[in-house]
Amino acid sequence: MDSINVIAMAGGDGIQSYTNNSSFQKMAIDYAKPLIQKSIADSIQPTNSPTSMTFRVADLGCSVGPNTFIAVDNILEAVKLKYQNADHEAPKFQVYFNDHAINDFNTLFKSLPPNREYYASGVPGSFYTQLFPRASLHIVHCSYSIHWLSQLPREITDKSSRVWNKGKIHYVGAGEKGVIDEDKVDSFNVPCYFSSPQELEQVINQNGRFNIEMLESLPKLEVSNISSIPQVLCRATRAITEELITEHFGHEILDEVFGLFQEKIVKALDRIMGTDFNLFMLLKLKKETCLD
């Protein structure tokens, strides 16, 4: 594995931005809300000791837009309710918004809710590295982020490897060339891996520092206006992958690529809508474990 792969979602607040094209991700956060509230109700122990009067929450891979604020509000709402029911004074809240340094933190912090009940800080850097002092956080949240790999496996970039893409990526006009160089196509990779529940359990058990408190599927995402899905899904995909495509192929092909992509979505809509799958996982640090 080589250097850390640095990727950011489309910044700003324009028509193609992640801010305005992450509604599917918001639905998953909404569906996870009752599970988060139940988890906090079952695991947080309110206390008024001086050392615990600041409650620290981190959102890893926060990106830009309203979703990170919604996720944080869901967590803090549950924590405050837990303290209220225990007749304890609620703590002060410190929230850390983390993403790569190239993330559009300017837009993120310009859109901070003005009536927020927490102190906000930005923490640039990969969450595959140590970002915080040991034992400094109470809750860590991460949504639609951990499927991004820290690096591309070296074998994928080796032309002599059996996993090299040569001949495995099909595109219209492949026999003609002209618009996209064949070598560029063969060397293009999206550094994501969508693991199964069994794979997640195996990795966490191998790590040995956490207990899996909950692992279940979220309800299938429901969209009221089916006719809008091709455009919504196309824009969402562009907001996520635009930087990857631009860096590898250049920005000149973006409009044409995603115009064709939307046509493909229309033709395969039934199959696409039938493959939605989201997991909710709650991990708890083992008491005997200290993170380095």
TrEMBL record:
Pfam families: Methyltransf_7 (PF03492)
Entry keywords, A to Z: Magnesium, Metal-binding, Methyltransferase, Transferase
Family note: Belongs to the methyltransferase superfamily. Type-7 methyltransferase family.
InterPro entries referenced in this protein's UniProt entry, alphabetically: MeTrfase_7, MeTrfase_capping, SAM-dependent_MTases_sf
SUPFAM superfamilies, per database record: S-adenosyl-L-methionine-dependent methyltransferases
Signal peptide annotation: none
PANTHER family: S-ADENOSYL-L-METHIONINE:CARBOXYL METHYLTRANSFERASE FAMILY PROTEIN
Protein name (Swiss-Prot/TrEMBL): S-adenosylmethionine-dependent methyltransferase
Organism per entry: Rehmannia glutinosa (Chinese foxglove)
